Amino acid sequence: MKKIVISILLFTFYSYAIEIKQKPIEFTQNRVELTKQYIKKSYGLDVDNINIIPKIIVIHHTASDDLKESFDRFYPEILLTDRTDINKAGSLNVSAQFLVDSDGTIYSLMPETFMARHVIGLNLSSIGIENVGGNEKSLTPEQLKANIELVKYLKDKYKTIEYLIGHYEYRKFEKHPLFLEKDANYRTIKHDPEQSFMENLRVNFPNLKSMKDDL
Fold it and tell me: Which pLDDT value is given to residue 13?
């Protein structure tokens, strides 16, 4: 099958540059079709493409302290067999637009405005940033710095972005117009990333809202 090719990226904003290395997951037309099926099943929408308008940035950790192990979880197009907690929503594998290693290296896994399966109910309006770690090791200062740079880049590029949240906060959006999940029983409990990491990140972005700002 034909794969989607992404070029090397080097973005400049304000007075410095952000380097985003390419580490693409498997993304053939099959993954596109699986994404459309997920959108139909979970959101009740028939779509011609899998493009999103980003309005939310969601921060995650992988719960693995190894880059390769973390990447290998996202790489296949089909959901891994051990994900019995979410397989009822479809066979599309989980993914995110970005993966940040413990040394702060930022990797692009897929096109920024293609929908990734990374957060229940909000995939169609969000960009996901996964951070390697959160198992035995906490996320690092280098990752915090990289997340700050990446969020600044995304906020500058996509003027539609309004929210910055941790994965553990997603259920606060259940009554929000952006939350689209049709199955009221399809929910998981999330604790990523550490709350202190999220607080240290969010203080840099007073103009990006968390859900509590809309309550």
Answer: 41
